[in-house]
Amino acid sequence: MALVREGARRYGSASQADTEHLGELIAPVLADGDVIVLTGGLGVGKTHLTKGLARGLGDAHPVTSPTFALMAVHDGGRIPLFHFDLYRLEHAYELEDTGIFDVLGYEGACVLEWGEQFQDELTDEFLSVVIERVADAPEERVVSLEAHGARAEELAQAIDEAVIADSAAHVA
Questions:
Q1: Closest Cα to residue 53, out of 168, 162, 164, 172?
Q2: Which secondary structure element, helix H or strand E, spans residue 113, and what is its range?
Q3: CA dihedral defined by 164, 168, 171, 172, rounded to 10 degrees?
Q4: Which of 37, 80, 109, 126 is least crowded, fewest Cβ atoms below 10 Å from its Cβ?
Q5: What is the pTM of this model?
Q6: Contact between residue 152 and residue 61 where contact means Cβ atoms under 8 Å apart
Q7: Cβ-count burial of 25 within 10 angstroms (0-12 exposed, 13-18 middle, 19+ buried)?
Q8: What is d(CA 77, CA 54) in angstroms, rounded to the nearest whole number?
Q9: Tens digits of residue pLDDT in 33-84
């Protein structure tokens, strides 16, 4: 893997496999109630990160973006992973129909693609994972973590430590 720590809570990903690997590194530190908001344009790798999360939790089932279903449950691992894609929602009142309020912050971990547009309606406690393309390098991405709340701060620190340990293991 070529995942590179570019600074505190900022990582370079050279491929889809690297982005999935980051998800695998995040998974062991996830706990019930954790909320991750994935932010980035179309095709930047939000679903690839989620594939890594599910695999890292021990769920071997295929992961696809639930663009039309709005929610997918990956419950074959250590804790359930509730995967929401809020891209098609236009208004906050539509969140009621997704089932998000039944699980958000309680059971399993929630990962929200396109959740940034509804942050004020969802929760004050979440980890924002921002994925951006690198200019002139179509496969490369920069992934940044932004903690919102005490638990998210713990999560971001644990992820940073996991990436550092992983990098050291690949050098040794």
A1: 162
A2: strand 109-113
A3: -170
A4: 80
A5: 0.92
A6: no
A7: buried
A8: 7
A9: 999 999 999 999 999 999 999 999 999 998 988 776 788 899 999 999 999 9
